[in-house]
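User: Can you model how heme C sits in this protein?
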Amino acid sequence: MQTEIIKAKRLLICGAAVITLFLIAHQPCEASVRVRHSNASTIAVPGKSIFEAHCTKCHGADGTKGRYGAKNLQNSKLSDEQYRQIVENGKRIMPSWKKKLSTEQIEEVIHYIKTLKQ
Ligand code: HEC
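Assistant: Here's the modeled complex, given as structure tokens:
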């Protein structure tokens, strides 16, 4: 009888330890997931990586490459609205991006190309 009680106690302590460990292990995990989520909404898709993925082959990393007659983005004097028009709808060789990028991504990349200007 005595050993049964000891066994039961051990089981209880063991169970409690497992639950505690589970909770400890779970806490920081959930916290980091939450951090990643909030980052995703604040820095969304950074314009730089969109630019590097889609635009540098013609415009170059600094916007001056000019491949296929691509405009030098450092000298560009267009308004935000004109940027949006050109990036969404394209212009001659400049491709249209509205089907490939979201409105948010287009805004991000426009924000980024403005940072290329000195
Ligand atoms: C296939 C090559 C090519 C790619 C890829 C490309 N562009 Fe262009 N881009 C051009 C060409 C060519 C022009 C000049 C269009 C014209 O006026 O004839 C241009 C013009 C522009 C202009 C207008 C600049 C001005 O002052 O008139 C902007 C803004 C621009 N591109 C942004 C982008 C962005 C942002 C991306 C990536 C999402 C991109 N481009 C990808 C070729 C490209």
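A couple of observations from the model: Residues 47 and 112 are 5 Å apart (CA to CA). The pocket of heme C is lined by residues 54-55, 57-59, 68-71, 76, 78, 83, 86-87, 91-95, 97, 109, 113 (CB under 6 Å).
User: Helpful, thanks.
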